[in-house]
Design brief:
- The complex is a heterodimer of chains A (259) and B (279).
- Chain A is α/β, with parallel strands linked by helices and 259 residues long.
- Chain A folds into 2 domains: 174 residues, Rossmann fold (3-Layer(aba) Sandwich); 67 residues, no CATH class.
- Chain A is built from 8 helices and 9 strands.
- A 6-stranded mixed β-sheet of chain A has the order 5-6-7-3-8-9, with helices on both faces.
- The relative contact order of chain A is 0.17.
- The N and C termini of chain B lie far apart (49 Å).
- Chain B is mainly α.
- Chain B has 2 domains: 54 residues; 201 residues, MetI-like (MetI-like fold).
- The chains are: A alpha/beta (259), B mainly alpha (279).
- The interface between A and B is medium-sized, with 24 and 22 residues.
């Protein structure tokens, strides 16, 4: 039994631009095991989003190898192996909240009864039940982002890829959504890849923190969290939490110094 | 003289009333009353000046005379309307807009067509309608078919360009989302690209309503059976029956506004989600 879900070997991606090649990713090696919560943290331009998009087959690497569920990202995408949450909610304004969550289910050919059941289920999961008839523009930013997470959870994908999903939200909403996300992860046992700018967010959520640095985009440090799976918000004041945050900060600074 | 004094007094009084009405909080009544009063004043001003200064009805008939002609010639006006608007403009509008839509979807799919067809379309759109109409009459005969052909040529390009532009309007993230679902081309088209294109498509359809009516009327100047709005306008001008010409213009104005309003209403229903439509 092999429980590696995502595996990257010497993964590189170079964008050819008018100002010469840009090394977005260079020699990335990383294994993500089933059920892990992995955060990618680093300054802008370190390739964390690009790495996530490679897993999702939204970018094509120019070197090295990457497998998702043991197959190429393209095959994984075709078999609908992952749900993806973007930086902005990106809900379709002509569809209701319920309609937006139903969108992937319609495309993937779920039956009508199954669609209705699943929409109800995930709406409860993100605490939006009763809002399925509302349109996205009638909801706050935080609620929209929760709806977009519900949309990614509606179908049976074991992997959830999230690209700075809470980046545009204020801290109070963010704390609340972080708590909900952890509860959700515990309940669904999905493997989660999570891109963020925030050190506390990365430490609070993750079982593994991947610190990345720019020019060229590479992994500076991989930190396995020693925090327990059960994490109340107050855990952020414990010495253990601060210790890990410290190591992340060191990793970020180092990456910057020789970058 | 009495007419001119009466009109001036009425004008000032209506002005005063409108100032009072617009100072009030907007409601259903004054949203209707203000433009209505404005229109009535304009008509009365016209009537009074024509009568007061004794202007020849060949130059400008008074609105009352136009109204009388209008009501006395209802069957004739209806026949002209049916010939020009329903047969010529409407059928041309439906064929032209439908064809433009289908071509736009094809153009959007094929970069070859996009580079080849759009410049040619641009060229065709630049052809003057006045030059095109006699040729269409030669090709398709005197009846409504040639008028519909002119309308097709007129409405095709604005709808094509707007639809092509609209199909590219969905943003990168929305398209990436479809990709993560491994959606097929028809699925992405039906569930994302077309809905996102609707505000653009309706923009083209609204422009096309006015073009269709102009095209159908003008095309009749170059040959038509002995009915139709364009035919009537050109022959009645020759007979100096300007009240009949104005009656036809009134029909055209009413039909054109109603047509535009209908498409705008449809737009409101379809693109209710767009920021410009959310009230």
């Amino acid at each position: 039994m092999n429980d590696t879900v995502i595996s990257a070997k010497n993964l590189s991606l170079t964008f050819e631009t008018n100002d010469g090649p840009v090394h977005a990713l260079k020699d990335i090696n990383l294994d993500i095991a089933k059920g892990e919560f992995v955060s990618f943290i680093g300054p802008s331009g370190c390739g964390k989003t690009t790495f996530l998009r490679c897993m999702a087959d939204l970018e094509t690497p120019t070197g090295g190898e990457i497998t998702v569920n043991g197959v190429t990202p393209r095959e994984a995408r075709k078999s609908r192996a992952y749900g993806y949450v973007f930086q902005a909610a990106g809900l379709y304004p002509w569809r209701t909240i319920g309609g937006n969550i139903r969108l992937p289910l319609e495309i993937m050919g779920y039956s009508k009864e199954d669609q209705a059941k699943r929409v109800q289920q995930v709406l409860e999961l993100v605490e939006l039940d009763g809002f399925d008839r509302k349109f996205p523009w009638q909801l706050s930013g935080g609620m929209q982002q929760r709806a977009s997470i519900a949309r990614a959870l509606a179908f049976d994908a074991d992997i959830l890829l999230m690209d700075e999903p809470f980046g545009a939200l204020d801290e109070i909403v963010r704390d609340h959504l972080n708590e909900q996300l952890l509860a959700l992860w515990a309940r669904t046992e999905k493997t989660i890849g999570f891109v963020t700018h925030s050190i506390p967010e990365a430490v609070y959520l993750s079982t593994k923190i991947v610190v990345m640095s720019p020019r060229p985009g590479r992994i500076a440090d991989v930190i396995d969290s020693t925090l327990p799976k059960e994490r109340p918000l107050e855990i952020r004041d414990t010495p253990e939490f601060i210790e890990i945050a410290h190591r992340v900060r060191d990793g970020l600074r180092e990456g910057h110094a020789d970058g | 003289m009495i007419w001119i004094v009466f009109v001036l007094v009425f004008w000032i009084a209506a002005w005063r009333v409108n100032i009072i009405l617009t100072a009030q909080k907007p409601n259903r009544f004054n949203a209707f009353a203000v433009p209505a009063l404005f229109g009535i004043t304009l008509l009365l001003l016209w009537e009074g000046i024509v009568r007061g200064f004794g202007i020849s009805p060949v130059l400008l008939p008074p609105p009352s005379a136009i109204a009388v002609t209008f009501s006395q010639n209802l069957p004739l006006l209806w026949e002209d309307f049916f010939q020009t608007f329903v047969k010529g403009a409407l059928s041309g509008y439906i064929i032209g807009c439908g064809a433009a839509f289908l071509v736009a979807v094809a153009v959007d799919r094929s970069p070859f067509l996009q580079r080849g067809l759009l410049p040619v379309g641009n060229f065709v759109a630049a052809l003057p309608i006045i030059g095109l109409a006699p040729i269409m009459v030669m090709w398709f005969g005197f009846d409504w078919q040639s008028k519909a052909a002119v309308v097709v040529a007129m409405v095709f390009f604005p709808v094509l360009v707007n639809t092509v532009q609209g199909l590219q309007a969905s943003d990168a993230m929305q398209r990436d989302l479809m990709r993560t679902y491994a959606a097929s081309y028809p699925q992405a088209l039906m569930k994302l690209r077309l809905p996102a294109a609707m505000p653009f498509i309706f923009n083209g359809l609204k422009i096309a309503t006015t073009l269709a009516l102009i095209g159908a009327i003008v095309a009749e100047f170059f040959g038509s059976p002995i009915k139709g709005m364009g035919f009537r306008i050109s022959t009645e001008v020759g007979r100096l029956a300007l009240d009949m010409v104005w009656a036809e213009i009134a029909v055209a104005a009413i039909a054109g506004s109603a047509f535009y309003g209908l498409v705008a209403l449809l737009e409101k229903g379809v693109t209710f989600w767009h920021p410009s439509q959310r009230g």
